[in-house]
Amino acid sequence: MKAKAIIYLLISLFVGLMSWESQNAQAVSQFHQEVNEEEAIRLRILANSDSVSDQMLKRDIRDEINAEITKWVQEVKTFEEAVAIIESNMDEMEAIVARELSKYNKNQDYTVEFNEEVAFPTKLYGNLVYPAGAYQAVLVTLGEGEGENWWCVLFPPLCFLDMDNAEAKEVESESNEEDPEVETSFFIVDMFESVWDRLFG
User: Fold this and answer.
1) Which chain positions lie within coiled-coil regions (predicted)?
2) Distance between CA 111 and CA 165 in Å, rounded?
C-alpha cells in the first residue's frame, strides 16, 4: 500500500508540475510581443578589425550616426516616413563616417548602404522581441568589416537602450565545415532537473 501511495503521489506531483510549467511558459509568451520585421529599421556597423583603435572608431561612428538619425525620426509616425528621411540623408551619414576616419587618421575604405537584406540575431527590448532575420537597415562597413560589429533599432528609436550590450562577432561559415554535433535532451529529464533546481537549488 505504501508503494502505491508513493507512486500516486509522484504521479500527482509530476502532473501538477507539468501544468505549472505550461502556465509559466504561456505567461512569458504573452508578456513578450514579437515585432514584425517589416516595421523596423535597424543599424549595423561592421568594424574593420578587433584592434582597440578600430573598435573605438566604430563606437564613435555609432554615436554620431545614432545621434543624427534619432533626431530625424523622433517625430516620425510611420515606417514609410522614416525610410524616406533616411534615404534622403545618406550623404550626411557618409560624411559622418569620412569625418571620423579623418579624426583617427585612418585610410580605410568604407561603405554606407541602406537595404532590406541585412541579417540580425534575435534581440529583446523590454517586452518587444525582434526576431532573427533580414531587416531593412543602414549598414556601415569599415575596411574589411571583420571585427566585432554593433547593431540597434533606429526606428522606432531604441539605440539608446543598446549602447553597451549590442556587440557581436561576425562569424563566417565555410562550406567544408563539419556539421556541429547534435545535442539531444529529454523533456522529462529536463523538467525534473528544472523542478529539482527550483525546489532545492
Assistant:
1) 62-96
2) 24
- The more confidently predicted of residues 177 and 82 is 82
C-beta neighbour count of 70 within 10 angstroms: 15
Q: Which residues have C-beta within 8 Å of that of residue 96, sequence separation ≥ 6?
A: 61, 64, 65, 68
Burial of 127 per CB tally in 10 Å (0-12, 13-18, 19+): exposed
pLDDT top residue among 57 and 165: 57
Kindly list the domain boundaries of the chain, sorted by start residue: 33-162
Distance of alpha carbon 84 from alpha carbon 41, whole angstroms: 12
Question: What's the burial of 161, exposed, middle or buried (CB within 10 Å: 0-12/13-18/19+)?
Answer: middle
Instruction: Kindly report the number of other CB atoms within 10 A of residue 145's CB atom.
Output: 18
Task: Give pLDDT tens digits for 78-121.
Answer: 999 999 999 999 999 999 999 999 999 999 999 999 988 898 88
